[in-house]
Design a protein that fits this description.
With 178 residues, the chain is an alpha+beta fold. 33% of the residues lie in helices and 35% in strands. It has a single domain, classed as Aminopeptidase, CATH 3.40.630.30. An eight-stranded mixed sheet has the order 1-2-3-4-5-6-8-7, sandwiched between helices. Helix 1 runs antiparallel to helix 2. It is globular. It binds coenzyme A (COA). Coenzyme A binds next to strand 5, helix 4, strand 6 and helix 5.
């Protein structure tokens, strides 16, 4: 356990735990998209498509390139975050945050904040002191990152489709941990 809210614990998953978590992580994506989230998928995402996306990260989890964090409450996964370390020789200090998702039924309880702080703590401990991410401009996640002192790099218009098919801008952020 790395961080906790009052009723939810945030854990890092090892590769076996990650494999076991994939069906729940897929459900998390499907529910988030149904509630309007733009997280790589459109409205017709299925459990199978979402599970396939998580499966493509198994090798990265096994090698340690990516660390997966989950928030667990009442025995079920209610949140996720990935910390993906750069593999480039010239950026051993950099990592990217992704898949910050909290189940629609438990939002505004500090779960995403706990997931982000766990990922930031891990990055700092590993010497990954420069973090980057991007998110839907004007979204709850946009507010989340600003509340955690992430800095805006800029906005790319029409970056990705919302679940309803409309192109929408993305805001890119960075955060220096030292
Ligand atoms: C963005 C998301 C992860 C936030 O999860 P959460 O657990 O509800 O967030 P928290 O409760 O930890 O919120 C922390 C802070 O973020 C900001 N925030 C979170 N949701 C917000 C919202 N809907 N509107 C405005 N600010 C918001 C607030 O500053 C909040 O602090 P406060 O509640 O004390 O005001 C969640 O809404 C989500 O899963 N969205 C869909 C997936 C997504 O878009 N992920 C981002 C991919 S890059």
């Amino acid at each position: 356990m790395t961080e906790a809210t009052s009723t939810v614990d945030v854990h890092e998953l090892d590769v076996d735990g990650y494999r076991r978590a994939i069906p729940e992580l897929a459900g998390l994506i499907v529910r988030a998209v149904a509630h309007g989230a733009s997280v790589n998928f459109t409205a017709n995402v299925t459990i199978e498509l979402a599970a396939a996306w998580w499966r493509t990260r198994i090798d990265a989890i096994a090698s340690g390139q990516t660390t997966a964090f989950v928030a667990v409450g009442d025995g079920r996964i209610v949140g996720s975050t990935l910390l993906a370390r750069s593999l480039n020789q010239n950026s051993p200090h950099r990592a990217e945050i992704g898949k910050v998702i909290v189940d629609p039924s438990v939002r505004r309880r500090g779960i995403a904040r706990a997931l982000m702080l766990a990922a930031e703590d891990r990055a700092r401990a590993d010497g990954r002191w420069l973090l980057v991410l991007d998110t839907v401009t004007g979204s709850p996640a946009d507010s989340l990152y600003r509340s955690l002192d992430w800095q805006e790099t800029g906005i790319v218009p029409d970056y990705a489709l919302l679940p309803d098919g409309r192109p929408w801008p993305a805001t890119f952020f960075w955060k220096r941990l030292r």
